[in-house]
Specification:
CATH topology of the largest domain: Rossmann fold
Helix content: 25-40%
CATH architecture of the largest domain: 3-Layer(aba) Sandwich
Distance between the termini: 36 Å
Number of helices: 9
Radius of gyration: 24 Å
Low-confidence stretches: none
Shape: globular
Strand content: 25-35%
CATH class of the largest domain: Alpha Beta
Number of domains: 2
Length: 331
């Protein structure tokens, strides 16, 4: 049975009466040892929510609870931030002219120097940065610095690790490596990870649970696969899977009779084949994506997207038969 480690009860943070920034009426629970992703567009309140959980920002109303106890805000502590949590920010907060091992060891006390060096070595090995131990931080790449900052954050074995846009400055290859590192820390060390990201792929690939924010409101939460397959809002579908949304009238032209006002379709739900329900579309544009192509199709002025898993099979201007495998209706 899952154990709840963090609870938010009707938490709001309003910066001013005129501003929509912040969060409003947030209720959620986070289980111990889980990997949680808070996802939304820029300005949705993601970073505000993360700072509230950490205790570096005070709520305007509501309460935040960690292991059954109130999380103190910055006005209640000399040094803001919960002692059982570590926040990894985008600036890394490293000593640039100290060596890698010195940055990591500095987080531990000098009571047992031998144990201190051993734990530092183990952490560097876990994150694959042992070969960098004697290098100064200024000599490292951004990705290497981030892994040092990560080792520094978790060497004290915090209960919770908070990550604010951890992949924003990394290229594709480094993203893959860091995702693997974070998942390993989560599973092997049992650390609860709470990650904020504007890129839904981060949440879909890593999280046990996702929280979707829009305009400071928590509009939906759950397991990534469940949210993706059956989103409660068209906003979520657009955010997570490049879905397209059509008014019922346009959907009818496609052969879809909807009881709702709008129809949502993911590109992978569009089949390029002839059937009794198919319609003929013209390929307006082809976007190469590696192992697949994103096709922009048009029929009687209505544009839709389709995923083609056989790149090169079609050409721009070609006519294709299209049928819809699945769609969701929204009011």
């Amino acid at each position: 049975m899952s154990e709840t480690i963090i609870t938010l009860k009707d938490v709001s943070k309003l910066y001013s009466q005129e501003s929509d920034a912040g969060v409003n009426g947030i209720n959620l629970t986070i289980d111990k040892g889980s990997f949680v992703a808070i996802v939304g567009e820029s300005g949705s309140g993601k970073s505000t929510l993360l700072k509230l959980i950490y205790g570096s920002l005070a709520p305007s109303s509501g309460d935040l609870i960690f292991k059954g106890e109130h999380i103190p805000g910055p006005h209640e502590k000399l040094i803001p931030g919960h002692d059982a949590m570590k926040m990894l920010s985008q600036d890394f907060d490293l000593n640039l002219y100290a060596k890698v091992y010195e940055n990591i060891e500095s987080m531990l006390s000098n009571e047992n120097v031998r144990e201190k060096k051993q734990r530092s070595s183990e952490m560097m090995e876990l994150l694959g940065i042992q070969s960098l131990a004697d290098k100064r931080i200024v000599e490292l790449s951004g990705g290497e610095q981030q892994r040092v900052a990560l080792a520094r954050a978790v060497i004290t074995e915090p209960d919770v690790l908070l990550l604010d846009e951890p992949f924003s400055q990394l290229d594709a290859l480094l993203k893959i490596q860091l995702r693997a590192d974070l998942k390993r820390l989560n599973t092997e060390l049992g650390i609860t990870v709470i990650m904020v990201s504007h890129d839904p792929v981060d949440g879909l690939t890593l999280a046990d649970k996702m929280f979707i924010l829009k305009g400071g409101l928590l509009i939906e939460s759950g397991q990534p696969a469940a949210i993706y397959e059956n989103p409660a809002h068209t906003y979520t579908a657009r955010l997570l899977g490049n879905a397209f949304v059509l008014p019922a009238g346009e959907a009818k032209v496609m052969g879809i009779r909807s009881k709702g006002e709008n129809v949502m379709i993911y590109p992978e739900w569009v089949e390029l084949k002839s059937s009794w329900s198919s319609r003929r579309y013209e390929i307006e544009e082809i976007f190469f994506r590696g192992f697949y192509e994103d096709l922009l199709l048009v029929h009687k002025g209505i544009r839709i997207h389709a995923m083609n898993t056989k790149p090169g099979a079609y050409r721009k201007g070609q006519g294709v038969q299209v049928s819809i495998k699945r769609y969701l209706e929204f009011d």
